[in-house]
UniProtKB/TrEMBL annotation:
Main location class: membrane
Subcellular location: Membrane
Protein name in UniProt: DoxX-like protein
Segments crossing the lipid bilayer: 69-87, 93-114
Organism in which the protein naturally occurs: Rhodococcus olei
Keyword vocabulary terms for this entry: Membrane, Transmembrane, Transmembrane helix
InterPro entries the UniProt entry points to: DoxX
Topology with respect to the bilayer: Multi-pass membrane protein
Lineage, top ranks: Bacteria, Bacillati, Actinomycetota, Actinomycetes, Mycobacteriales
């Protein structure tokens, strides 16, 4: 079970880092997505910080599962917020945030079980 938790955690952490880099470098695609849901572009760095914290927590959780569980729950909350922002803005590109939220739920389930 540890291998499954490690694979899910590492892959999710990589996606979070990739997304954070896009936000920090103001990737045009991410800027467009943020403006379409009404999120202020000058505050994107806060989202990037949350994503990086989640990625670090997921990796640290492979060594001490309570941190991984807390990080996974935080990532679930982060993507739940993203889903809600897309719904509020009546934006149709909700699938990426929804899928990543589900992957974070899987990580939250696997991390304590693998301990």
């Amino acid at each position: 079970m540890f291998i499954a938790a490690a694979i899910v955690s590492v892959l999710l952490a990589l996606v979070l880092v990739f997304s954070a880099v896009g936000k920090l470098t103001k990737n045009p695609q991410q800027v467009e997505s943020m403006t379409s849901v009404g999120f202020p572009v000058d505050k994107m760095w806060l989202l990037a910080l949350a994503e990086l914290a989640g990625a670090v927590g997921l990796i640290a959780g492979l060594f001490w599962w309570p941190i991984g569980l807390a990080a996974a729950i935080g990532v679930v909350a982060y993507f739940l917020g993203a889903v809600l922002m897309h719904l509020r803005a009546n934006d149709k590109t909700i699938a990426p945030a929804g899928v990543l939220m589900l992957v974070a739920v899987v990580a939250a389930i696997l991390v304590p079980v693998a301990a």
